[in-house]
C-alpha cells in the first residue's frame, strides 16, 4: 500500500473552573428556595397527609458555540441561558410512599422526571410564585399516587422485596462562589472554526474535517426538608478539531491526539502553510502534516508516541 500521511487530529481543550469549598453569600435563588421550602412545610403540616420529604433542585445552563468544516461555517449558536426546576415530594413514610411501583401498572416515567421552567432573572418573588404553584401540583398528584399505592399493596400478594422506598441521610451544606461570566466572542470564533478547517480542502483523501468550540457555564442549587443546602458552579471551554483520512485501498485511518489543558487559551493557528498546528503560547500542542509533535509551555504532559507507525516520521 502506498505510504499515506495521516491527517487525523482531535484536540480537546477543557478548562473547568476550579473552586474551593467555602462559605459564600447565598444567591437570591437559594434564598428563595429556602424561604418557599419553609413556607410549604408549615402549610403542609395542617393537611391530613403531609409530605415527609421535600426537595428543590434548580439547574441553570448557559451554552454557546460554533462549528466549521472545510472552511465553511456549519452551525453557530449565541449564548443561551435557561433554568429548570426539579421537585421531589414524597407522601407516606420512608418505608412506603407515593413513589412505590404499582405492580401490574405501567411505570409513569414522565411524572417521575418532570422538570419545570423557571425565570432566569434573580427575582425571588417570581421564583417563589412558581415554586408554590408547582409544589401544589406535585402534592396533589402525590396524594393520589399514595392512595393508589396503598390499595395496590393491600390487594396484591406480599412483596419479596421488603426494602423501604427512601432512606434518611445526613444533611450536607456546601457553597461555591459564582462562576465567572462566559467570555465568548461569537463572531471571532465563527471566523476561527472556518480558518482551522480550511487547510483540509487541499487534500482529496480527507473526507471529514471539523472544528467545534463549545462554552458552558452551569450552576446548581439544592435544598431539602432534611436541611441540605448546596450551591455549585462550573465554567468550561472545549475546543475540538478532528479530521479523518482514507487510504487508496479504502481503509480509514484515524490517529487522534487528545490533549487536556486547564490554562486559558486564545485559540489555534497554523504557523505556516502545511505546518504544525499549535495551541496558543501556554498550552500543549500537536502537529499535523509532518508528524512531528510540538509543545510550547504547558501544564499537561504530552503522552509518548514512540512506536506508533504514524508518529515515527
Itemize the secondary structure elements and their pairings:
Layout: E1 13-14, H1 28-44, E2 51-69, E3 72-91, H2 109-112, E4 116-118, H3 124-155, E5 173-175, H4 186-197, E6 206-224, E7 229-246, E8 252-253, E9 268-270, E10 277-279
Helix pairs in contact: 1-3
Explain what this protein looks like in three dimensions.
The protein is α+β, with helices and mostly antiparallel strands and 313 residues long. The protein has a domain at 28-65 and 81-175. It is 21% helix and 29% strand. The chain has 4 helices and 10 strands, in the order βαββαβαβαβββββ. The chain has helices spanning 28-44, 109-112, 124-155, 186-197; strands spanning 13-14, 51-69, 72-91, 116-118, 173-175, 206-224, 229-246, 252-253, 268-270, 277-279. The strands form 2 sheets. Strands 1, 2, 3, 4, 5, 6, 7 and 8 form an 8-stranded mixed sheet that branches. The protein has a two-stranded antiparallel ribbon with strand order 9-10. Helix 1 packs across helix 3 (124-155). The two termini are 17 Å apart. Mean pLDDT is 76; it is low at 1-23, 255-264 and 269-313.
